Amino acid sequence: MTVENKTIIISGASRGIGRATALLLAGHGANVVVTARNADELTQLEKEATEGHTRGKIVAVSGDVTSESDVATVVRTALDQFKRIDVVINNAGFGIFKNVEDISVSEWDDVMATNVKGTFLLTKAALPTLKAQGSGHIVVVASDVAKRTFAGGSLYTASKYAQEAFMGALRKEVRPFGIKVTGVYSGLVDSHFHNKPGAESSRNWLKNEDMAESMLFIVSRPAHVVIDEFMVHPLEQEY
Questions:
Q1: Angle, to 10 degrees, between the axis of helix 154-174 and the axis of helix 105-112?
Q2: Is position 72 within any domain?
Q3: 20-73: per-residue pLDDT in tens?
Q4: Residue 216: alpha-carbon gap to chain centroid
Q5: Which residues are within 8 A (CB) of 223 and not within 5 positions of it... i.e. 6 or more apart?
Q6: Which SMART domains does the annotation name (predicted)?
């Protein structure tokens, strides 16, 4: 029940949930390979871990999860540095919230590319290693809207339902190889995903650190235990 010396890849790690998770896991002794498009923020994260003398190491690889070559570089870096991959946390994602007739084709493509294609590409790139090892854990940070819909959320919820379907089929494919798949379904989180993190209106929402603690719990279970689904909300959010 530890992440000590585990090699963990986290996408979308330059801020928010991904950043908090990287710092917490490294603090518990994991070696974390982080990726996102913002190279400066990743460098700062790497520096913070080094200066904070975390038990584990954070290695930054800037890139775009919608790029097959960028994703391949992330996986190759993890293997070059640490010789194995234990956990892949698909965290990269964003949302656009508009009525259907107001969504442009480019907006649709951008959200689907990051949220769905990005999850597919990073998972696909890591799978040969996980299968060869006979172990591994794929985590997808979806949303509680993978289970529900709302007006103005057609694009974002469609991307999350797609992640949900992807995980369901993937789970059946990889379980015989000793590979775990976990879907994380969070409610409202006070993060950069929303326009004004730290606002009074979001004071009682989940914090990035709450989600990081959830990730730590999920990926530190014994080898014979898999948490297939993990849903978490702030108490003030109706469920």
A1: 30
A2: yes
A3: 999 999 999 999 999 999 999 999 999 999 898 889 999 999 999 999 999 999
A4: 12
A5: 135
A6: PKS_KR
